Amino acid sequence: MTAVFAQNALLDTGWARNLRMQIKDGRISTLTQDTTPQAGDSCVDTLLPALSNLHSHAFQRAMAGMTEYRLAGRDSFWTWRDLMYRFIAHLNPDQVQAIAALVYLEMQEAGYAAVGEFHYLHHQPDGQPYDHLAELSDRIMAAAVETGIGLTHLPVLYSYAGVGEHPLEQGQKRFGNDVDRFCALVDQARAAATNLPGDCRVGIAPHSLRATSPRDLAEVLQAQGQGPIHIHIAEQPKEVAEVQAGLGARPVEWLLANAPVDANWCLIHATHMTGAETQAMARSGAVAGLCPVTEANLGDGPFNGPAYLAADGAFGVGSDSNVLISLTEELRTLEYSQRLRDLSRNVLVAGEGSVGQSLYSKAALGGAQALARDAGQITPGNLADLVAIDSQHPSLCTLRPDQLLDGLVFAAKDHVVTDLWSAGRHQVQSGRHVQRDRIIASYRNAMRTLLAAL
Ligand code: ZN
């Protein structure tokens, strides 16, 4: 049993003072307010439920900053994807693990307790499976163990280059599986996950409606659909047009009509939705997986936030391409994308109230739902996914407790984070990950050999 003492804490019932929390087996066991710390307690300033980062492709972190160069006439999402294919022609398992460990460290230092790893790099560079089919899933899990982050592992079914079962291109061979081999891979990943801490989950991720087919999707849901199900849904107008031409409906419209979408589902980049799709998706109970920094970086467009919030839709945030891992930046980019479009302020709050608190609390609940974690609120029985921030930091010290989340989201950087627990594992202390030096040295080393090979 370990214990945390916080001068201020945001509980599901509101702000509490002088709170002592006991943690047992990774879960919040008891909460006592208006008390004093005891010897051995971890003492912090302000304690919040930590967010889950619901969408990551860890390996893409190593490409950050390499695709911000304009070539005449070719500056689109699709040229970004070309570089990504070139990059992964060389990645080996050790490098995949070293990059993922850095990414998970950065997430925890930014205040995320857990990650949904949307994992599509499965095979060797020539497309041949590794001797152990789930080798690279094992490497993702090893990085999660190294860092202590809570992992929801989402192996990706990627079978086609486009709607209509177009064969994979050379650059996509590392991703490819038919339904049978994919199910074997997921079985191996589920077996491996039994060696991880008990909060680890394994779900599935049909990559997109482009990369699977209606028949395959139905088969894989039947065989492996018992956990979280994530899918890229409507990121780019070109994707919407392709699905509409091939399947006869827009992506969100088609999915809601043809798959049993419910609270187990997370629709990543539900960016391009009509009003009717927005209402229907909110009613389905699925989580909208928003990745505002990546969506801005790739020029995807803004989410239909006001209508979705008015319909009480669930959402969470993810760092997707990991071009920048910052929880505060993710939340404020989400709000600012709405303000820039609507020429308005304080958009993403239903009715009236604190935008920061609305964004943070909803993203905490939606992210936990998407990753099948009992988290998102500080309440007994939940996983101890916790982040501590320093309310006396110059960025925050003028604010009342009820203004603190507005300060965090709009006026601070991630360095106000002092401590982070993933299911009770105290991985960030005094603002630094406990394995920081070792993980960064290993990342630098892995990148030296990768860059030499490019
Ligand atoms: Zn993605």
Give an overview of the whole structure:
- The protein starts with a strand and ends with a helix.
- The strands form three sheets. Strands 3-2-1-4-14-15-16-17 form an eight-stranded mixed beta sheet, covered by helices on one side.
- It contains 14 helices and 17 strands.
- With 454 residues, it is an alpha/beta fold.
- The chain has one domain: Alpha-Beta Barrel (TIM Barrel), CATH 3.20.20.
- Residues 55, 57, 118, 232, 268, 320 line the site of zinc ion.
- The site of zinc ion has 6 residues, from loops.
Mean pLDDT: 95
User: What is the overall number of helices?
Assistant: 14
Identify the strand order in the major beta sheet: 3-2-1-4-14-15-16-17
CATH topology assignment: TIM Barrel
The CATH architecture classification is Alpha-Beta Barrel
State which percent range the strand residues make up: 15-25%
Q: Indicate the radius of gyration in whole angstroms.
A: 21 Å
User: What assembly state would you assign to the polypeptide chains in this entry?
Assistant: single chain
Question: What labels would you give this structure?
Answer:
454 residues; 17 strands; globular; alpha/beta; TIM Barrel; binds zinc ion; 14 helices
